[in-house]
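User: Second chain of the day. Same drill as before.
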Amino acid sequence: MNNFEQQKAKFRTQPGFIAALDQSGGSTPKALKLYGIPESAYSGDAAMMDLIHAMRTRIITSPSFNGDRILAAILFEDTMDRDIQGRPTAQYLWEVKKVVPVLKVDRGLEAESNGVQLMKSMPDLDKLLRRAKAKGIFGTKMRSVIKQANPAGIRAVVDQQFEVARQIIAAGLVPIVEPEVDIHCPDKAAAEDLLKAAIIARLDELPPGQLVMLKLTLPSKDNLYTECIAHPRVLKVVALSGGYSRDEANARLARQHDMVASFSRALTEGLTAQQSDAEFDAALDGAIESIFQASKT
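Assistant: Same format as last time:
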């Protein structure tokens, strides 16, 4: 089997979760602040990206971060273009850690309209996908946000996600479709019902052999997405933590059968630049183990 087929088999057969290490330029200052590095400690985007890469490198090279409990890691484009211990990041992840590399490809969100935020247009997506494929990336991730239970808005989000997903599949990659429902949505359960119906309709339209993954907010109604998990066009359904604390996210995830985590902030909660390597590794190991156990249900 080539790498792509091995990676697909890993998603199908192995327990574990996805580590979301894809904070973008907009969310990086907040991520660094939580990690114990205030904005006053650096100046300019280049210094900021160097610091976040150092943080991601520390996580990825930690002994506790490996393919035994982690299926994949989602990378920001800047991370894909850098090295870890002398190897390109995607190559290091797969060859050294047996963790599948995935790339965040969206360019951020449009202003809210019809109760949702669509993705900004991605005119250079084909070029980025070719580059990602050449670097050994397996799949992609792209995020939209649903803030209201608005049928037209939710339909627009799902239509856009699947339109771009087809482009990604055509490039030989597996897309993670992420229509996040804001955990503060006033009628979250109704929004999730609308979202599920729209997703199923689009999945049914995919030709045989075409696969997507879904990254969805932990639902208000337990096991709402069972039908999506069982769908023949779905490789994996993963959950985002959405602002819940790690304990709360894990508790909610443990109630969802066959849904696994794809946590970002909940994964790095409690990690700081000031910790010794032993303290850092112990904290990361505890976080990984708790998320791994919640993902096994």
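The mean pLDDT is 97.

User: Great, on to the next one.
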